[in-house]
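User: Predict the complex with zinc ion.
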Amino acid sequence: VVTRVAAARPEEIRRHNLGLLLREIHQHGALTRADLTAALGLNRSTIGALVSDLVQLGLVEEYIPPGRDRAGRPSHVVAPRADGPYVLAVEVGVERLITAAIGLGGTVYARQEHPIEGHARRPDAIVAQIVAEGAAIAAQLPPGARAVAIGVSVPGTVRQRDGFVEHAPNLDWRAIPFAAMLQAKFADPVDVLVGNDADLGAVAEHQRGAAIGYDHMIYLNGSVGVGAGIIAEGRQLHGVGGYAGEIGHMTINPDGPPCHCGSTGCVETYIGEHALLRAAGITDQHGAEAIAALFRAAEAGEPNASAAVHTVAVWLGRTLANIVNLFNPQAVVVGGSLAEVVRLERLTVESELDRRAMAASRSGVKVLLPGLKQDSALIGAAELAFQTLLEAPDVPLPAVAN
Ligand SMILES: [Zn+2]
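Assistant: Here is the predicted structure with zinc ion placed in the model:
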């Protein structure tokens, strides 16, 4: 087999370098030209030219830092432009819809959260609500600021290539062409990207949260549903269709309780919120308030609630042991309501992990709480939405407007 490798043309090299530079500023915020020169390994005049291109494109601004009067020329600071492009980040949860305007550098300009239940969970209702929230957010922002993409987090299996939701069991969605449905609401071909909540949470925690610098990390997201996002060798592990990481549906007891996915005895039926409530003997309540009340009771030492959290902590430790044996990560970030289980019962979780994980893998792994609190998936949705701009900052994107 003869592989022909085409030589890169100058405009491709320029675009590649523009992307690298913008990505650096997106990741770290304001940087000096000297920082950028060191980070990219390009010479000062090339950096200067690339920065002025990004200034011209309206993506960054450059200024001389105030209050510096020592000898020598201060290095110019390059920062994301405050009224530059933003993305509309959306987290479709089982019980709430969160929308936010997020700019380069990860700055959240506006954020709205609404409870959803019943018919409001249907895909067409969610699409309509996203469009309405996007317009409401745009009205709050300075004139001129424009959304250049929409990133959506969904608690289900999402086909990566086209944002088709195969199955979101806890929303009762099956075979929903979600990205296409949302796109159809706009006159221009708006960039809409859809991802799985745990996958997006992993990206966000790796890039901006508790796992910065850990290129082998897992984000385990557990609320009503349980799933994982996997970063291996610094890259996201998607699998062939984009469905990798469904740890919540690993069978841990074939004779266990029935699961929403159609199987029985899945991890989710032992550490998901329904399992937690069931373990506490609560059958008549569900939802975020019931879970919050249960954690408060456990913290106050109420016996049923404490025992339920302990039971889930044991199963969480077993789940983490499977994850650690399988992936040998440096860190597992535990998010969603499972973060509260770790906070209340860390010793139980860690000792079960000690008991069941292979010693070589166990010794190096940290169990961390999310650095982005409850917003890991939302921030991850913004990172997904920014991909197109970061790959080709010089190609104009249609604004999200209808
Ligand atoms: Zn299942």
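The CA atoms of residues 336 and 374 lie 7 Å apart.
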